[in-house]
Amino acid sequence: MQRLERQPGGHFRGWLSKALRTFAVNQWRYERRARRDVRRNVALGDDGDEHAHPLSSLIAPRADPVRQTERNRALTLLSDAVHTLELEYCRHARASGADGARRFELAKRAFLPGVDYEMLSLEACATELNLSMDATKQLVGRLRKRYLALRDRLLCLRVCSDLAEAKRWLYWALETTPPAPPEA
């Protein structure tokens, strides 16, 4: 920069100096920025799936920026589906006088994986909720069915109107393979 001669009316050195400083500051901020942990509360599930995909297949250590952006978009979509399901469930439970938040958290552990908690068996869930095994199966089944409907609706709204194409995008974004069709 010192060797560049000043041209009358030219501001190139000032512009170049400012551009380099701005780039350095942005790079420093980018490297230290707090990022969303993509491994938290991820659930993919699918019709006929007893367990969602393992989280290890959802972690991309060195994904390109476009792929990472799509991954974050997919995880946000799944998180929104879970959050909407929780709000719906708590609203209905409150109307019937039940503790919706506690019941939802326990039932969620029976059908959604998460890194903050371990999967809960249906038997343990029934015991915790003081419900019969049939009532627990019905509760978990309804939550799973509603979650899948919410996920599919959000995929159609946010990705594309063709559900099959939207699901392909979801599996691509999460870098996982679709579940095998259930055996007859």
Task: Explain the overall architecture.
By secondary structure, this protein is an all-alpha fold. The protein has a domain of 112 residues. It contains 6 helices and no strands. Helix 3 packs antiparallel against helix 4, helix 4 packs across helix 5 and helix 5 packs across helix 6. It is elongated, with a radius of gyration of 24 Å.
Q: How would you summarize this macromolecular structure in one to three sentences?
A:
With 184 residues, this protein is an all-alpha fold. It has 6 helices and no strands. The longest helix is centred in the middle third of the chain and has 32 residues, at 65-96.
Shape: elongated
Give a quick account of the main beta sheet: strands, pairing sense, barrel closure: none
Helix/strand order: HHHHHH
Mean pLDDT: 76
What Rg is obtained from the alpha carbons, in whole angstroms? Answer: 24 Å
Tally of contiguous helical segments: 6
